[in-house]
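Q: Start with the shorter request: fold the first protein.
A: Done. Sequence, then structure:
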Amino acid sequence: MNKKMRLLAVPTLALGAIALAGSPALAADSSYSSTLGQLNGTTGTGSITVDVTGDQAAVKLQVSGLAETFMDGPYPHVQHVHGGAQGVCPTAADDANGDGIVSVTEGAGRYGDILTTLTTSGATTPAEGLNLELGGQGGSYTIDRTITLDDATKASLEAGTAVVVVHGLDPATAGVPEAVFASPSDLDPALPLGATSPALCGTLVKTQMAAMPSGGADTGVATQSSNTAGMIALGGGLVLAAAAGGVFVVRRNAANNA
């Protein structure tokens, strides 16, 4: 007696999917994002996403169009997650002394103190808040790294009061006299006011995480959802399915005898 098997369908990735089927990537516990708005005459743009898993946060910050040079070198832009206040960005109405720049201290009543410094490498504590060497360099840059969150930052994210602020104004667009721009910073008198004042700002908002689909496509064929390779009986044949994609359909030949 000789049984013949006929291969009906073999999608390109099926073999690899079945051989290498494994656990899916670990999903984040929660995700946050913001499109950063402009302050103090800034013409740049920015966006940030923060994916939190436990006490780890995958941060991706992208900015462009900011001031490019400072004292014949790349302009160092520092940025932070602020919190513990109203969870909003300041407006021109917060310019308490009327000098034309909303400074850090004038905006702090809206967005709060530094909780985490978004450095390009190394430590991320508030102590690094003015570490220019670890700031973004130039007018356009990306910070893409995973950092450890402290309890205060996690609590602020969960409460909806975490605000990202990118600092460093462009004197060409700030709209104030040079004497005002170059006056001592309210954070460090050794630095110009314009160099430490907020340029971009945005509240981190929790994003809707994608739900896993329930059931398969309505093809009229039974399917199985699984993280490992599975086998499903279909009439006279077998379906070998892998969660990573790809399906084998193998059917017995109607003639079982040689």
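Q: Next, the second protein, separately.
A: Sequence, then structure:
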Amino acid sequence: MKKIHANVIQFRGNHYDFGYYQGQLLQNHILLENRERQWKVRRPLFDIKAEETKAIFQEVAPAIWEEIIGLQDALEWPIDRVLLEFGGYRSTLTPSGCSILSGKDFLVRNYDYHPKTYDGCYTVYQPTDKGNAVIGVTQKVTGRSDGMNDKGLAMGYTFAHRKRPGDGFVCNMIGRLILETCTDIAEAVSLLKNIPHRGSFNYVLFDKRHEESTIVETSPRKVAVRNGSACTNHFQLLTEENRYYLEDSKRRLESIAERQVSPLSGEEAFQLLNGTEHGVFSKLYGQWAGTIHTSAYFPTKLETWFALGGDRTPVSFDFSAWLKGSDFSVTKVLGEVDTDIPFVHMEKVDWYKSL
């Protein structure tokens, strides 16, 4: 078992200052050292076009562009390198897992991916210039893999396939755009229908006005919307977009469905996804599909839970109190995962090895 951690980052202020603050935290951090070594081994399969990227951000979320500029100033990097690492537009991704379950006033999500990709940051940010306050797990610093905003809108995504990517935003930046610019499910669905998508993902949306989540199936070619309480890694409407191999995704969905005979509480849903014996939690870290964290979001109470690894008691965060000025006392969340693969935010990574 490997002991791991995630830092809890708290910030109130404008986007430029938030970007600059994050850049200062990243200076001389092993995360950046590992990523610099990565690009010496792996050639990026996309182009960086700064003006095009700036134009799309100015249209969709100009404040987040200011955050990117703050990062650039703190790190003293060329803008192309900042966009390569943190831009969230025109990137390429490797297949991952992930399972999401919602119920009455909760959304619980397993984030399944590879340790070499993990930021190790649980971030809460309240902008003073523009946008919603958001709490959630960062991905590529500026993006969010899952989270909830101060309006009670929660979001998580699951990978569908990597076929035929297009020019557009990647999943983690789309997650950030949803949480920071939308107040409810309807606005989030509208956003997802109108922005360009790099890859193919399910976005699971839940807010305090509904007792069931909305699942938006997206690809660079189509967007479809359905209701549902559980989601894994395949489309149910855009079936022509699915991968050929769906057995593991369908198995996890069936494992969830078997335990939904009666309505689950938030605690029961968390245990179902986080417990290693229920068939949903994954240990396939070497296959880019091992469960790293389990998150839970409660829109009515504006409360969140977060745990690293399986069979854990989650750390609880009172987002409502934080919004009123009470900082979290927790600065680091600890956990354990059953793998020897190094985590990019903690250890030196050998990118010549496949694991």
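Q: Describe the second briefly.
A: DSSP finds ten helices and 16 strands in the chain. The mean pLDDT is 93.
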